[in-house]
Structures are given as C-alpha cells and as structure tokens.
Amino acid sequence: MKRKKIILAYSGGLDTSIILHWLKEEYNADIIAYIADLGQGEDLKKAAKKAKEVGASKVYIEDLRNEFIKDFVFPMIQSSAIYEGSYLLGTSIARPLIAKRQIEIAKKEKAYAVSHGSTGKGNDQVRFELAFKALNPSIEIISPWRIWNLKSREDCISYAKKNRISIPVTKSKPYSCDRNIYHISYEGGILEDPWEEPPDKMFESVKPLSKTPNTSKKIILSFKDGIPIKIDGKSKSPIDIFKILNPLAGKHGIGIVDIVENRFVGMKSRGVYETPGGTVLNIAHRAIESLTMDREVMHVRDTLIPKISQLIYNGFWFSPEMNSLMAFIKESQVNVTGDVKLLLYKGNVRVLGRKSKFSLYNNQLATFEEDNLYDQSDATGFIKLNSLRLMLSKLKK
Fold first, then answer.
1. Helices in the chain by DSSP H: which ranges?
2. What's the whole-model pTM score?
3. Average pLDDT of 103-132?
4. Which of 89, 133, 241, 304 has its CA 20 to 30 A from that of 77?
5. Reduced to 3 states, what is the DSSP secondary structure of residue 220?
6. In which residue ranges of the chain is CATH 3.90.1260.10 found?
7. What pLDDT is attached to residue 172?
C-alpha cells in the first residue's frame, strides 16, 4: 500500500522544519518539501538539504521570480493597488503564486493534502487557504499552528532540541522578516510597540537618510501598456528591472513604510516594509498614466483601488470579482506607453517629466495664451448648468 503524500511549503526556518518533522510523525505520510524562489536571496540548496535531513522524502525548488513579477506584481502596479494608503502589498501578492504552484505539485505527486507554516493569528493562513480552495476545492489543508499543542517560540525550540532538529536561533533579529524580489516586511518582536522606532540596522535594502548620497540621481523609465520595459533607454527583463531599481532606490533611502494596518482576521498590527524599486515604479506608472489615460477611465479605476487592494490583502486573488476587475485594469492600460523622467534623492522620488506618442495632453488647449480651439465664453453655459442644482438647493432653504 502506497503511503500518503503531503506537500509542505517549506522555508528552512524553525517553524517549517519542526512542522515537517511533526507532519511525518503525526500523519505517517511522505512529506514533500516545496521551496518557492521569489528572490528572497537565501541559499535554497542549503534549505533543501536541511529538509532532507529533517525527513522530507523529496524536495522541489521552484524559481517563480519571473512569473511573480509578470503575472502578479506588474498587474498590481497597473491597478495602482495600495492597501490603506501606504502598503504596497509585497507579501500579500506573493501568497497566491506560492499556493498556485503548491497545488500544481500536489496534483503531479498525487498528494492528498497541502500544509503551510502560517500561524492562526496572521493574514497568510487565509491567503494560502483561500487560494488552495479556489484552485482545488477537494484538497485537504493541514494548518499545524491551529491544531498542535505547541503554543510559543519556546515550545518550538524545545521540540526541535528534543527531536534533534538543527535550527540556528538568534536574538540578533527580534522580529519576523519576509523577503522577496519586490519587498521586505518586518513585524512582531520589538515592532509590536507602535511607538518604538525601528532600528536603522534592521533594514536590509534601504539606507537611512543620514547615509544616503548628497547628490541626486536622474533616471528614465519606459512603459508599454502600463508595464515597465526599459531603464534609461535600455530594454530590461522583469527580473533585471528590480535587480537595478532595488539597490538604486535603496541607496537613496527610498521605499520605507511604517504603518499600523487592519488585518483581515480582525486585529490591528504594525508592519514595517521596504519596497525600494516598487515605490519608484508605482510613482512613475502614475505619471505616465496622467499623460495617456482618459479622465473618466482613470477616475473609475481610482475608485477601484481600495477594493482591488483589499482583495489582494485578504487573499482573494483567485476570485470571480478579481478576474472581472483585472480585465478592466488590463483594458485601461492600453496605450499607457511612454517615458517618465525621475529624480531620486534623500528618500524622495520626484517626477521631472513625461512623454508619449499616445499623449492626450494638447499644448494648444492647455495654454494660457491665445488659441483657436477653445472658446472661453462657452464656459458660461457650462457653469450655469452645473450650478443649477446648487442654486435650487439653496433656494429651498
């Protein structure tokens, strides 16, 4: 009789290492470790080796960076999605892709269940499991943090020691950290006090303002249908765009956000984020839209930003409503094409100029000088008609 299989989303850290061992013991199954490469900059071969040592029957290392940027990050930038006015959703947008590939591996391996290391208090458990259910309604989901008797980090360390699981535990980073090619997030530990300032040494990609250059940097970003394709006139792959923009923006102190956000599960939490390249891209994208996008299309799209952001944050990427909204976003981006000139300096991204062959800007209409296209006397009737309801409401009082 064949043993059952469980696919575990594995990182190589404390939680997923003890989860791997616990699943094997508790379910008497073969545990297949799945490691998603989203550009976190870690030694994934080392993590795979550790998974085998802990007891994984097989290990998958999947390079998802290109798919992550093209099919998830870029559409999000096209939609200008920003959660609660600040958060660029770097962790949120990664979860549906991780879940998607996990379900694909489960199908390939004929596994009956998938598992993850998210806690019962966070958003990630919801994001993973909503995606699992959307992609394979019949899959069994095992969420150890919600069912085992380990209640704290100390319990996890004791479990690791008892079962001879080699886990380096250090107090040098008293907070949790999640990284991918788009951003880095920090929460918990010393950050749980919203008044406590995050230490400069915590940040991995963005320099403190006091250590940024005293000279500015100008760059030109080129877009085609809302997608960045060039830097300073040179074509770049999606991965290379971030490999260039992340260190460049980080060098100039760009991309740190410190917010108290509303989790989907009902509590407030403090999150600190580094999104250097993503910050530059979002600002540049809005700039080229201002030149090329129809006014009413833009205004409709802008009303959808809170909803799209909420759907991404809450884990509804694979939902009927998101499919419909993203179809609109894709259509809205046709001809959002051209160049944006930017200045990077001391934590700021300043738009210096924009140009496009699809520009809707007309010098002759916009000028304050004499023109033959716009009859200023026409504004009289326009104002009278638009003020009619205001006058009537006042007369009724």
1. 14-27, 44-54, 65-68, 74-78, 94-109, 124-135, 144-147, 153-162, 238-251, 276-292, 295-314, 320-332, 363-366, 378-395
2. 0.93
3. 96
4. 133
5. strand
6. 176-293+336-355
7. 58
Structure tokens at 72: 């998830």
| Inter-residue contact 304 to 325 (CB < 8 Å) | yes
The domain made up of 176-293+336-355 is a member of CATH 3.90.226.10: no
Cα–Cα distance measured from residue 380 to residue 390, given in angstroms and rounded to the nearest whole number: 16
pLDDT at position 171 over 60: no
Q: Which residues are catalytic?
A: 15, 95, 124, 176
Closest-CA residue to 54 (of 29, 33, 84): 33
Q: How far apart are CA 143 and CA 120, in angstroms?
A: 8
* 206, 279 contact by CB (below 8 A): no
CATH 3.40.50.620 maps onto the chain at 5-78+93-162
Average of per-residue pLDDT values in the chain: 94
SS3 58: strand
Give me the pLDDT at residue 123, please. 93
Phi, psi at 292, each rounded to 5°: -115, -15
Contact, 12 vs 47, CB < 8 A? Answer: yes
Residues 283-307: tens digit of each pLDDT: 999 999 999 999 999 999 999 999 9
Which of residues 384 and 374 earns the better pLDDT score? 384
List the strands of the sheet with 338-345, edge to edge.
Answer: 234-235, 227-231, 217-224, 338-345, 348-355
